[in-house]
Amino acid sequence: MKKVLIIGAGPGGFYLATHIATLGKNYEITIVEKKDIGGTCLNVGCIPTKALLDNLSLFEHFNNSISKKNLFTPNEHNINLEGFRKHQEEIKKQLRQGIENTLKKHKITLIEGEASFVSGKKVLVKIKQGENKQIEADEIIIATGSKPKPVSSFEIDGEKVVTSDDVWNIPKIPKTLLIVGTGPIGIEFARVYKTLGSEVKMAEIKEKICPILDGEISENLQRSLKKRGIKASANIASKQMETKNNLVRVGFLSAEDSKHNTEEDLEQVLIATGREPNIKSLSLDKAGIELDEQGFIKVDSYLQTNIENIWAIGDVTNFPQLAHTASFQAKVVAENIVSGKKQKQFDSRFIPACIYGYPEIAFVGKTEEELKDGKINYVKGTSLFLASGKAKASGLTEGLVKVLIEKDTKEILGAHIIGPEASNLIHEFVVAMQCGITAEKLYDVIHAHPTYAETVYEAIENGLKQLTKIEAVS
Predict the structure, then answer these.
(1) What are the pLDDT digits (tens) for 83-135?
(2) Of 77, 260, 427, 449, which residue is the catalytic one?
(3) Measured between alpha carbons, how far is 311 from 289 in angstroms, rounded to an integer?
(4) DSSP designation for 149
(5) Of 171, 204, 174, 169, whose CA–CA distance to 186 is shortest?
(6) Distance (Å, rounded) from C-alpha 460 to C-alpha 381?
């Protein structure tokens, strides 16, 4: 019987355990989790925040239908914040129960405690209730996730200066909120708090809003935020000056020349500058595990660390910190462990990313900025949701679909969407890119009418027409 120990019961660790149990029968599998089963995603991240975002988007859309389209008779309707909290907790409870039942079904042992390495094959677990336990395993997988990244110029107290871990269940609605950072976490919470009634401002130290985005999508996002009364400023550094009279005084400086701009008193500051690997308590040095220059666990293409029997998945590795990254990496590691050899590699090129604002944003592959060095000849195709019959009918006409196509091979190099159902629409591009389906082949696929997916089709059509024009000129 081969012993497998998984440290962390988030989307990576949980899926890894069940996948090994499904693929192979001669495994004794143990998961150690020091906090909450389901990890960040289930407890303070993806799931509870989407329970807020999806329903608040409906609320905003309904209000727009009243005020701008006169489709409904105005009536008094208010947000029931306590109802939202109960809704979040019920979803979390159901999903956690599902995980626990699945673990029991596969006879996987779950231990509540904090793990730290004793050696390459031994781990000490400080159990919450009971005596400490030392576990020896043939294969050990680190899947401990991440935690909010602090900012040296702010002192996080959990009340006035907070992280997403502190405010996912909306403990209060501040009159004024500054969000430091305009990445996915910042964008999503900006939408939540603005809809709930806060005056929201955002400060981004880099040159554009949400720096991970394609430039054209970033510009559309900034217009969308402005339209909703959210002021998002790039090239701005911020610093906590003092906390006085229940307010946080923040100083703003130009990131370009470090010149002082302004100071402002705010009721709350949300630090949303990303997350860092949650590895401090693991005593990785005792196992000889190496880190990369950015402090992530170093893994090869098979997700194995420099120690042969130790693997790492999810946010502790230097790949996009997404739940689906972790669960797919779990699949790769499970198949390598069960096969007894390193045969399946992890390909990070086609990981889709989604931002659940209103409108949504989703993307995969290269941005146009990455292709402008001239090494790859490409054209772009775009299509506006404003021209979509489905979008017109639903009233969700913001945004566009953008596709980047290689001139000679017609390979899809990247796809970027801001608009309704972007998180679902992106998968047509993901499948095409991963399976080597060209833009020409995708253009031959019939798309139903009226659907948002027609906008994807029209972006591809627009890109191929650009190629036709180029060929005609040459």
Answers:
(1) 999 999 999 999 999 999 999 999 999 999 999 999 999 999 999 777 899 99
(2) 449
(3) 10
(4) P
(5) 204
(6) 6
449 has catalytic annotation: yes
Supply 157's token pair. 């107290």
For 127, the 3-state DSSP assignment is strand
- By DSSP bridging, strand 139-142 and strand 2-7 are parallel
Nearest to 107 by CA among 18, 177, 194: 18
- Given a cut of 80, whether residue 470 has pLDDT beyond it is no
Q: d(Cα 110, Cα 128) in Å, to the nearest integer?
A: 12
Closest CA to 405 of 443, 360, 352, 452: 443
Torsion of CA 228, 232, 238, 240, to 10 degrees: 0
Given a contact cutoff of 8 angstroms between Cβ atoms, the answer to whether 149 and 273 are in contact is yes
DSSP string covering 301-335: TTSB-SSTTEEE-GGGSSS---HHHHHHHHHHHHH
Structure tokens at 155: 């002192």
Q: In this predicted model, what pLDDT tens digit does every residue of 22-46 receive, in sequence order? A: 998 899 999 999 989 999 999 999 9
pTM for this structure? 0.94
Cα–Cα separations (whole angstroms), residue 340 to 43, 82, 256, 302, 335: 34, 51, 53, 12, 8
Domains of the chain (ranges; CATH) run 2-148+276-339 (3.50.50.60), 161-273 (3.50.50.60), 359-473 (3.30.390.30)
298 three-class SS: coil
295: its two tokens? 């402090």
